[in-house]
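Example protein
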Amino acid sequence: MELTTWIVVACVSLDIALGLPSGQKQHHFKRDVSLVELETELGYVVGRQETVLGKDLDVFLGVPYAVPPVGNRRFSRPKIIDPWKEPKMALELPSSCHQMVDTSFGQFPGVDMWNPNTNMSEDCLYLNIWAPSDRAKGETKAVMLWIFGGSFTLGSNTLDVYDGRILAAQGDVVVVSMQYRVGALGFLFLDDIGAPGNMGLLDQHVALRWVYDYIEAFGGDRNRITLFGESAGAASASFHLLAPSSRPFFKSSILQSASALSPWAVSSNETAIERSLSTASLVNCDRNAPTAEVLKCLKSASAQEISEQMWSIPGDLRNIIAPISPIVDGYFIQEQPLDTLKKGDVKNSDILLGMNQDEGTYFLVYTFQTLYNLTYEDRIVSQKEFRKALGNFIKNVPSDVVDLIAFEYGTAVNWHEGVVFKDAMDDVLGDYAFKCPVVDFANHYASHGNDVFMYNFKHRTSANPWPSWLGTMHGYEIDHVFGAPLNTSRQYTDQEKALSRQMVKYWSNFAKTMNPNLDENGHAEEIAWQSFTEENQNYIVLDADPVATMDTGLRYRSCAFWRDLVPPLTKAIQESVTCGSSIMSGSLCLLVFTVLSAWILGAGSSHMS
């Protein structure tokens, strides 16, 4: 495609939001910058040029990629944007999609940093693009396309923590972040073409198609697009690895702290319909009316009220993490992700993925506040509270299996009065909801001949506003991936700067070559990140001192417990049989005996962590 780029000669004074510590709203000041106008096949786009870490970037904020899903298009599948005649001014952050604003702890920075920082609107399907300016004609750079997390119900690409300028400058890549519909507006499912479910995932798909079709105008290489995301964003990225419709349009994926195997990542169609109808009732629509009438009512209801009321619906841990989520629709998600992985019907691609040391604590705080009226201060959790909490968290398994989980995770804890039991709770939540779904996804992907690179992020950043007992929390690797410690206005330690610099290098190298150790010129990293296989279980530990070390067997025993012991025992008990029952088949009894024996003699006694 023939490209023409104009640098507007005149400098103009613009309000520019520069990076501030996570959790703070952006402040603005005047600065002279040059405008940049690019010609794309859709029309002209006007952005601005900035200098970041000594490198010139072209920045485009709020580039539309889809027809606004407003009016009668609410709940509809997205449609890619039509060409425009007048230049699109891409100078301001776009609106955030409608969602609940979290006020659980008032204006506490650890919560407020994840709340939308721009006006909310249904007209929210936009991209932000940060592209190095030093592109010669015909030269293109690898593209990193970010999918934010937030339980499929929260989040925005406008958040300070997702500012892509430092990653683009330090990593020498084109960084793109997308908005997509969240909550009921993005995932309402009524088994009807008017509310088909998975609209938010299809928004992502259309954004991916847009980037593939038009990113060359911004200096990006359409054949080197890496999807990367965290939490629900990582689960989303893994759905695109499994979805035949998305696979042709990107090269590789980075999954941070979740996968499509996470128990909250897919709802049954029955659960999705029930939660969708419950949402309808909460906004004064008759859930028992014909589907067409329910949809008509929902389309006339307040978008913000729909987004907020959905959170009032009770549920188990899966619904606490993701009140509404994707479904197997037969259109984008063809079948249960585990079935797809077992068959190997996945994108043939290398992947990078991993987790944080304390994935469960963030959700522990919220759940304990609900159950026991605790706050985010340090609190004691007793043995009785632990068992009660497990019963509230994990409602999809029999009580006997919950007892087994309590035994497995409680044996290493000193139960005497006054001991903080949060570590065991953190491990249960973290393993069940985040860590083991990542490990299992890695094992399946490696089994099909793909190179897999696994990490465990252990460093608790000095900027973390939460109490220290929460540890290295869910989501707190993002600052380092996006290079926040390299922002000279931030007060990070030298060790944290070194860690962030190394992580930016690993992530951007992977986007360029599908190998975190090699850049596009063949230069190798000093600290080699060895690949993960089913046999070696290699992973890299990312910490401040030292920055990186290799280890093996990340959550090996725990994930074997959730994978090999809990499901078959749950199935056996749910069939309401016992080994002494006259209706108990010998094969089922043998299954229970075999599983327990294998656990005790095999994975259960493994030395791996």
Confidence is low (pLDDT under 50) at residues 1-32. DSSP finds 18 helices and 16 strands in the chain.
